[in-house]
Amino acid sequence: MYFLPREYKVNTKTEEVTDTPVGIMDVYQEFNDLSEKFRIMKFKSKKVEKSYAFEIPDVSTQCEYLEVRYSAEFPALPSGLKGATFSHIFGSNTSSLEHFLLSRKIKGPCWLDIKTPQLVSQPVSWCKVEAVALRSDLVTVFRDLSPPPITIMSISLKTIQNPKTHHNEIVSLAALVHYQFHVDKASPQPPYQTHFCVVSKPADCIFPYDFKDAVKKRNGKVEIAATERTLLGFFLAKMHKIDPDVLVGHDIFGFDLEVILQRINVCKVPHWSKIGRLRRANMPKLGGRGAFAEKSATCGRLVCDVEMSAKELIRCKSYHLTELATQVLKMERVTVPQENIKNLYSDSPHLLYLLELTWTDAKLILQIMCELNVLPLALQITNIAGNVMSRTLMGGRAERNEFLLLHAFHDKNYIVPDKPSFKKTQLETVEGEDDVDAGKGKRKKKAAYAGGLVLDPKVGFYDKFVLLLDFNSLYPSIIQEFNICFTTVQREAYNKGKKKNNEEEWSDEIPEIPDKDLEMGILPKEIRKLVERRKQVKQLMKQQDINPDLYLQYDIRQKALKLTANSMYGCLGFSFSRFYAKPLAALVTHKGREMNLEVIYGDTDSIMINTNSRSLEEVYKLGNKVKAEVNKLYKLLEIDIDGVFNYVIGQILSDQSRDVIVENIQKHLVEVGEKVAAGTIPLNQYEINKALTKDPQDYPDKKSLPHVHVALWINSQGGRRVKSGDTVSYIICKEQLQKQEGLSVDTQYYLAQQVHPVVSRICDPIEGIDGVLVATWLGLDPSHFRAHQQYQREEEADGMLGAPVQLTDEERYKDCERFTFTCPQCGTDNVYDSVFEGAGLKLEPSLLRCCHVSCGSQLTDYPVNISNKLLHDIRRHIKTYYSGWLVCEDQACHNRTRRLPIAFSRHGPICPACTRATLRPEYSEKALYNQLCFYRSTVFSIHHSLDRAKLLSRDSIDVYRRLKEVPDNALATSGYSEINLAKLFQAFSSLK
């Protein structure tokens, strides 16, 4: 521990500063008095000089401290303790392990040279050899020796739920073992040398009469256990005999180990601690969050969870074993529903099939681990970061960054930040989104600092090359380029200001960039080391005739270096991090936002530029030009050409004409609609995959979220539980969600909610295709989508200043109903959307003659009939508006009502059917006004075409004028287009 002396003594009761100066001996004397109070019977101390560069204000960058050391058997001092002669204690909550790793410069698994080890008389572990090092300085790192081969064991088990206790009981367990697994070479083939299986039976079942004979015939290594207790005893005996260094499983912390330990506890199996390497009598309390008990029980063995490792190394829609087997191994996994396992005890072939599935799962787990190179990669990452490999395998990315910086700052004689206490991190909630928590209604804090810049895309149909430019490792490059470090960036003003004022007022405050002549800080140095080492390793990989094992080793090393370097920035902006420095994180993202170009789309570290060129050569020239200009400005910020997008999404961006594209899309969508209606699409294509962001039981609105509903049902059935981070697959059916045969897929939901929105969005920039057409092609009712599309257009127009003025008549009246008049002579329906029809010499008034060629009667001879029909249509539209029908904004919710609900949000009344979206008028006042304007301006107004009015006779002009008066009279009674300014500003009349 390091005690920071005060300049002057402080009265601890009144907190008043006295005039008495403080020396190191004063601090020593005060701690000597405190040691009796905290029962620290023996300690050592000395005066040392240390540097400090972190976030606690009023701590000098370099000064003298009193260093105190005492045995870990004595209690730790409380964090935040202050005295009359010292203002801070650093290192009061530092663990013995951390102190040992830093002081002895141990960086990950390595050979250790232990001087004068002492054999123990009372063993505390299950290991064959046990020795004690008397002091930590007797342990030194022994370098340049390759790691030894290790023993690995992959396990898989099958369980059934006891109907009375609702506990999971183990019925079969399989394990694969390899005694000479090398972590610095390619994985052995096959990845196991031996295996064993053990099978038990549920309490209400019996083994098939010929099961033993069936096992002998198959020559299988199967142990038949009469009870579950016998099965667990056999497994622990095997664990002790094989003594694996690494246990491998899928969701092993979340399910396998928890179930094994629970059943050992319930069945009272002796020597439970053989599952690990420490001899222990009392089992840790099971069922806690974070799998603490399972991690504690396996002390001495590494535990590799392939689910956890896959989440860091690859991207999948789900990380279930079935999905991983498909994605990583390209193999199909066969599963048996838990409720069907008991039925497999009916005869020997079925029970052997269950054992085969258990064994196959253990094999798949081992193969996935080998294919992803989980162990070699974890070893390399741990050697780079300097933490412990067991934590790396658990996916502790923040801890890896922490240890990398701990080693770096410790080597430079800096005092490192203390670990934040759990209570403190709970109070300092993660600063992020500005939204309302659904469960408690409390508003979260606004973003602590501005993040990376994401530009709104310029929507359009780009049928020429689009160039994608990408910054190579943007944030690490910025940290190096501008020398951003704890030791270089001055943050005193920021920290003092934060203390005096509300923290939110300081969110825009950015510290100054360090001087260019300043020596490179520790953080950019560490990042540069990682980047340079990766470049060197990649050069070594390019050597001719390189040994495959060596190539693999280099490849794993460069991946480990890349993963570590790219996550370094995260420790600055992560509020639970030990090296959290908000001003530094803000400075890094601020410099990232400064580098902007005129682009059609851009996010934090990549941009898309419209080249307006169809020549690939020209596009690459432009890309290299931009790359050279940016790299000239910033030495360590390297922008690169990632790829060129040309004619994206098949047909839509093909080189064919627009008409052909539209026709092809129509054919395909009609085909899709017909296949869905006929039920010829495979069931797995209807699966929807959604990830859980928290445990299912923690969601406040469980009933309204299908994936949460499904997750809760799965958990109620027993077996492997679905938890936070898992992906749930489900299919929407017409009937209520329940377990029964013969459920039918809700095809309307999939077409309307899953297919239609995506296709409409992709086709939106293409003229000739809109949401209504897409709905018609898919076989959906287009009326609902027409109303929704009209509403969207109105919303967009309202959002644009002066948008209605900028729109052409064709765009403005696109959704209006056309005027239809039936010819009194032949009965043909004539549709009108303009005053004139035809073009050039063939241009003529639309009412001049009936559209039926053989009829040819002049419709201007029936002005009264047309006027009555027009008046009838106008009254129909007005009646539709005053009917007051409301529809839900969510296209999947077909709720339509005239009753105004009680619940309102700031966007409008909340739909009582789905409770997610808001209700809006089916026929809005704007739609009515546009319809009346369409009749007046487009169909019957000759004033819009004065140059063409010469084509009309005087009688025809009179007819058009009389017909125009009908919508004019209706618009005269409408108050939609008028604003009463006197009424609007009436409230201000009293203010004089």
Automatic annotation (TrEMBL):
It comes from the Eukaryota. It catalyses: DNA(n) + a 2'-deoxyribonucleoside 5'-triphosphate = DNA(n+1) + diphosphate. Its EC number is 2.7.7.7. Residues 88-323 form the DNA-directed DNA polymerase family B exonuclease domain. It comes from Liparis tanakae (Tanaka's snailfish). It is found in: Nucleus. GO terms for molecular function: chromatin binding; DNA replication origin binding; DNA-directed DNA polymerase activity; nucleotide binding; single-stranded DNA binding; zinc ion binding. One of its GO terms (biological process) is leading strand elongation. SMART domains: POLBc (SM00486). It holds the Pfam family DNA_pol_B. Belongs to the DNA polymerase type-B family. This is DNA polymerase. The lineage of its organism: Eukaryota, Metazoa, Chordata, Craniata, Vertebrata. Keywords: DNA replication, DNA-binding, DNA-directed DNA polymerase, Metal-binding, Nucleotidyltransferase, Nucleus, Transferase, Zinc, Zinc-finger. PANTHER family: DNA POLYMERASE ALPHA CATALYTIC SUBUNIT. Residues 388-595, 648-766 form the DNA-directed DNA polymerase family B multifunctional domain. InterPro entries: DNA-dir_DNA_pol_B, DNA-dir_DNA_pol_B_CS, DNA-dir_DNA_pol_B_exonuc, DNA-dir_DNA_pol_B_multi_dom, DNA/RNA_pol_sf, DNA_pol_B_thumb, DNA_pol_palm_dom_sf, Pol_alpha_znc_sf. GO terms for cellular component: alpha DNA polymerase:primase complex. Residues 806-985 form the Zinc finger DNA-directed DNA polymerase family B alpha domain.
